[in-house]
Amino acid sequence: MTQGHPKGLYVLFYTEMWERFSYYGMRAILVLYMTKALLFDVSQASNIYGNFTGLAYLMPLAGGYISDRWWGNRRSILWGGSIMAVGQFIMFLSASYHDQPALSHPLLWAGLGVIIVGTGLFKANIASMVGSLYAPDDHRKDSAFTIFYMGINIGAFLAPLVAGGLGDTGDPADFRWGFLAASIGMVVGTMVFRIFKDRHIVDADGYALGLPPDQRPQGRDKSLDEPLGREDWERVAVIFVLSFFVIFFWAAFEQAGASLTVFADRQTERDIMGWTMPASWFQSVNAVAIVLFAPVFAWLWAQLGKRNLDPSTPVKMSLGFFLLALGYLVIAFGVKGVDPTTKVSMMWLIGLYMLHTFGELCLSPIGLSAVSKLSPPRFASLMMGVWYLASSTANKMAGVLSSFYPEAGKPAPVLLGYEVTNLHEFFVIFVVMSASAGAVLFLLARPIAKWSHGRA
């Protein structure tokens, strides 16, 4: 799977790996920090989590526009990485004064705000650069995004282990070390990109990628001046349609950083031979499974393609929804009849994360590749920003839905007239939402494929 790819792919792989180490390290302990050190309740922490992650995925829309219009990918990535490192360090300062609300709370807001700005400049630009390494019709693109996605998840696997191991110790003061590790990781990622970008970040013809528009070689961007035709606009429409559907996928999937972390902390049996596993470590299950199974899925799609049986992008994505729903169905069964004081086997949560991993592999790298193939060259980063805009909406939605997590001794939350009295009813919400979205997307697969004109 890794043969025949340009070296620039691996520069982007390691840069993104460290950026995701930074982000997921912070994410693994953010809700725990707010509930255990700052003593926020679950509803308040969930809404803050949703607002933060929503804005973090909204800003790439602006970052993509700035890059396409003025800065170019390279400058945007360097500035974004540097700003995120500063934001994580501010989180370290917040946690250092966790017992002084007059300091810790303003530093929390400042740290999260700075990280949001940095993410906006970084996120869409690095993903669009992966696609730019290849010619528009290069068959290696799907494989390249799968490799890139493995980099994301190596970082996501290591992050909760390191940040959670350092921060989630039972001592509220230790959360600062988790945030410091996230800051250091972002510095490393930014330095990797800075050192190797000039030598290896080039297109198929050896020309530098990611330069500002006014510094690009003459004649290299003729396609950027051509007006969009009907097929271009139909492909753009497909990007918007797919982006709309992934809102529902990530709203359910991103419970991993919110309600599922609370569930792991409060109602999951984590004792192993006298040692209690940090709740944040469960977030590594998904990432390590991605690293293990991404090559399997890449091989599967390739084998199906050789036999002309490779499903279209919307069919693959609808399969991802059904696997997501199945994961929630498993855990809904596991907690049925369980009261708020009872802890259940960790195997229920691990089973959920494994099924969610398979669903993610059917949807996320496939979607990234589709956006790269469908985007008009002049709007490559902006269209990637649209894809992340969907993640923004989804993360905000995830925080809102997480706030309906039922807590002992508190009134049962009500969602659209549906009273959520126990965990079984809470998890069923995500079964219904995921399965319904998957079914509608599957029914729309044929018209979506038609509008893609052979690219999805």
Question: How would you describe this structure to a colleague?
Answer:
There is one protein chain. The protein has 456 residues and is mainly α. It has one domain: Up-down Bundle (Growth Hormone, Chain: A). It has 14 helices and 4 strands. The protein has helices at 7-37, 42-96, 101-132, 141-167, 175-200, 222-225, 230-253, 259-267, 283-306, 313-334, 346-374, 380-402, 423-443, 445-452; strands spanning 271-272, 275-276, 414-415, 418-419. A two-stranded antiparallel ribbon has the order 1-2. The protein is globular. The chain starts with 6 loop residues before the first helix and ends with a helix. The relative contact order is 0.16. The model has no long low-confidence stretch (mean pLDDT 89).
List keywords for this structure.
456 residues; Growth Hormone, Chain: A; two-stranded antiparallel ribbon; mainly alpha
Helical content, roughly? over 70%
Topology order in helix (H) and strand (E) letters: HHHHHHHHEEHHHHEEHH
What would you say the CATH architecture is? Answer: Up-down Bundle
Q: How many strands in all? A: 4
Tally of contiguous helical segments:
14
What number of domains? 1
**How would you state the average pLDDT, rounded?**
89
Globular, elongated, flat, extended or rod-shaped: what is the shape? globular
SSE order and pairing:
Layout: H1 7-37, H2 42-96, H3 101-132, H4 141-167, H5 175-200, H6 222-225, H7 230-253, H8 259-267, E1 271-272, E2 275-276, H9 283-306, H10 313-334, H11 346-374, H12 380-402, E3 414-415, E4 418-419, H13 423-443, H14 445-452
Antiparallel strand pairs: 1-2, 3-4
